[in-house]
From TrEMBL:
It catalyses: 2-(2-carboxy-4-methylthiazol-5-yl)ethyl phosphate + 4-amino-2-methyl-5-(diphosphooxymethyl)pyrimidine + 2 H(+) = thiamine phosphate + CO2 + diphosphate; 4-methyl-5-(2-phosphooxyethyl)-thiazole + 4-amino-2-methyl-5-(diphosphooxymethyl)pyrimidine + H(+) = thiamine phosphate + diphosphate; 2-[(2R,5Z)-2-carboxy-4-methylthiazol-5(2H)-ylidene]ethyl phosphate + 4-amino-2-methyl-5-(diphosphooxymethyl)pyrimidine + 2 H(+) = thiamine phosphate + CO2 + diphosphate. Residues 9-195 form the Thiamine phosphate synthase/TenI domain. Its EC number is 2.5.1.3. The gene is thiE. This is Thiamine-phosphate synthase. GO terms for molecular function: magnesium ion binding; thiamine-phosphate diphosphorylase activity.
Length: 218
């Protein structure tokens, strides 16, 4: 059974931190064992064979753990996984990654479809109208993973409550800064480094959950 995905830790993979199948799969298994709300497969390479192979394994892990798998950027890959495995597959789309309504049509009404809104409420308003399932804002703090991402103020998260969708905070979140983003209104706290830069992603997810005061999910 899939647990409530709308609140908690949103773990995002990274091909630099997890450069091969063995490390990616081991780290994701550990992270999933601690009950994140969502797992995103994010691989910016053009290696479609690797992306299919890795995403297919993660789809199985996520299915077993009851955690939705979100595919970054790639509606076609999410669609292929859904057809092949029939599991809960979603997609995260940035402003250059394809149309939300195309993704919704391809993946169906219950798919989780996320939208990057940077620091812009106008993008959030459009994404809401186009059928997004959640709205992602950031980056809020200095990011190891994407230092060039444009900055966003924490006050944006309160302003975004009006859209009535789960708000994701991203960028430089760790055991300290995550609390600030939650206090500012984010239901979901997305991180690469605080989970997959840690020695043990399971311990990291549990530590982040504890820092938020969220009950352990597993
Ligand atoms: C949860 C979440 N929020 C934001 C992003 C960034 O998406 P995007 O702007 O498309 O940048 P890339 O991740 O594709 O480099 C995200 N992936 N996930
Ligand atoms: C993928 C991504 N998108 C961002 C945005 O602001 O849109 S920040 C970011 C990287 C998040 O990694 P870390 O938790 O290591 O900072
Ligand atoms: Mg993208």
């Amino acid at each position: 059974m899939t647990a409530d995905w709308t609140r908690g830790i949103y773990a995002i993979t990274d091909a630099t931190l997890l450069p091969d199948d063995e490390r990616l799969f081991a780290a994701c298994e550990r992270a999933l064992s601690a009950g994140p709300a969502l797992l995103q497969y994010r691989d910016k390479s053009a290696d479609a064979v690797k992306r299919w192979r890795q995403a297919a394994v993660l789809a199985g892990y996520c299915h077993d753990a009851g955690v939705p798998l979100i595919i970054n950027d790639d509606i076609a890959l999410a669609m292929r996984l859904k057809v092949r495995f029939g599991t809960t597959i979603g997609v995260h789309l940035g402003q250059q990654d394809g149309a939300l309504d195309t993704a919704r049509e391809a993946l169906g009404p219950s798919a989780i479809i996320g939208a990057t809104c940077h620091a812009r409420l106008d993008l959030a308003e459009r994404a809401t109208a186009d059928g997004a399932s959640y709205l992602a804002f950031g980056r809020f703090f200095a990011s190891h993973t994407k230092p060039e991402a444009p900055p966003a103020p924490l006050t944006l998260l309160g302003d975004a409550a009006r859209f009535g969708l789960p708000r994701v905070a991203i960028g430089g979140l760790d055991v300290h800064t995550m609390r600030l983003a939650r206090e500012a209104g984010a239901e979901l706290l997305a991180t690469v480094h605080a989970v997959f830069g840690a020695d043990d992603p399971a311990v990291a997810v549990r530590g982040l959950q504890a820092s938020l005061g969220d009950a352990a999910r597993k």
